[in-house]
Amino acid sequence: MAAAKTRTSTFSRNLSTASPSHGPGLKCGPNGTVFLSSGIPDLDKILGGGFPLGSLVMVMEDAEAPHHMLLLRNFMAQGLVLGQHLLYSSPARDPRGFLGTLPSPAASKDDKPRERDPDQEKGLRIAWQYKKYFGENQLDGQRGSLSLVYSLFILLAGPLCEHGADGKHEYSNEFDLRKPLERHFINGPRIDCVSIQDCPDLSTLRDRCATFLSQFPRNDGSISCAGRIAIQSFCAPQCAYSNMEWDMLSFIRSLKSMVRSSNSVAIITFPPSLLSPSFCKRWQHMADTLLSVKAIQDEDKELAQLLTGYQDMVGFLNVHKVARINTQVPVILEATTFSIKLQKRRYLVLECLNQAPVDGSSGTSYGTSGGCSSSSKTGNLDF
């Protein structure tokens, strides 16, 4: 008698396939997306988890202040702390010297400037309230009750936590901008530095990127390690190819294609003022995630009256585009413009803009740290 065949269809769920495992510093997202941390916890939350693997991130620089370097430093330092490979390209003659300016992760939880996540505390309170529904004699007395309460806490608040058992971040770290990264992180074979100052064309940089990305081929299995590419001031005037706009656009298109088929993320910063308007638009269109930074003018009295906490701001971050890898539905941002603050002059913090009270009263807040109100009136400033 023939054995009965199991009926299957295209709508049957394959329960035998185990979920792929990922290395440190990677986080699973919706639709099979795997995120890489930007090195800034606030930016990860804003973007819906971080930078998706296989994406190209472009940052428009401000000609008056190097705020884009804050993003680059945290992005590079996060990868080195997690043991990920890094390719750094710069118009400086000695790009490896820039590695000495990378920040070090906070030593302990006591050094962190932020208080406990309010969502996490809410989950703990809700879980603890369930204790009253279990008698002292149930589940082997009080021990069983507390165990169940603890289990509820893990279910409710666990996904909100990004800490391991030792209290350190597993996915994204807080970095102390005043403390340099330890030498053993920046002295190793995982780092490749390229100077593009004297390059007559972009073939050398393209070949280095192709060799670097070949270490992280995209497949459906587990991802043991990921790569990061950071290219600073791509169209800087000291580069010999700075006037070859078509060549630079061709390089960006080629890099995007190579990154898309690898387990890596590439960041390119560029000063848009050095490009013609048409090519600047083309560059922005090539980006999966598009950001821009802008410095705050000294003693801007109009902004000081409009925004609360203006004295602590050093600039603005604008999110123009969020990556749509593995989906056609974009992340809906509650605000597009965020203030850049250096809390305690050491930690990089992004906050929604708050409207200052007009009549001297308490006023209405149009945004809070780590979350944004959809009614924000100052969250869509255009630069």
Keyword list:
383 residues, alpha/beta, disordered C terminus, 9 helices, Rossmann fold, 3-stranded antiparallel beta sheet, 3 domains, single chain, 9-stranded mixed beta sheet
- Based on Cα principal axes, name the global outline: globular
Give the number of DSSP strands. 16
What is the ordering of alpha helices and beta strands? Answer: EEHEEHEEHHEHEHEHEHEHEEEEE
Going across the biggest sheet, name each strand in turn. 8-5-9-10-4-11-12-13-14
Topology overview:
Elements: E1 26-28, E2 34-36, H1 41-46, E3 51-52, E4 55-60, H2 68-81, E5 85-90, E6 103-105, H3 118-129, H4 142-157, E7 175-180, H5 183-186, E8 191-195, H6 203-213, E9 227-231, H7 245-260, E10 264-270, H8 277-286, E11 289-295, H9 301-306, E12 313-321, E13 337-343, E14 347-352, E15 367-368, E16 371-372
Parallel strand pairs: 4-10, 4-11, 5-8, 5-9, 9-10
Antiparallel strand pairs: 1-2, 2-3, 6-7, 11-12, 12-13, 13-14, 15-16
Helix pairs in contact: 3-4, 6-7, 7-8
Explain what this protein looks like in three dimensions.
- It is a single chain.
- The chain is of the alpha/beta class and 383 residues long.
- The protein has three domains: 2-106 and 178-331, Rossmann fold; 112-172, no CATH class; 353-383, no CATH class.
- The chain is built from nine helices and 16 strands.
- It has helices spanning 41-46, 68-81, 118-129, 142-157, 183-186, 203-213, 245-260, 277-286, 301-306, and strands at 26-28, 34-36, 51-52, 55-60, 85-90, 103-105, 175-180, 191-195, 227-231, 264-270, 289-295, 313-321, 337-343, 347-352, 367-368, 371-372.
- Strands 8-5-9-10-4-11-12-13-14 form a nine-stranded mixed sheet, with helices on both faces. A three-stranded antiparallel sheet has the order 1-2-3, with no helix packed on it.
- Helix 7 runs parallel beside helix 8 (277-286).
- The longest helix has 16 residues, at 142-157.
- It is globular, with a radius of gyration of 24 Å.
- The relative contact order is 0.18.
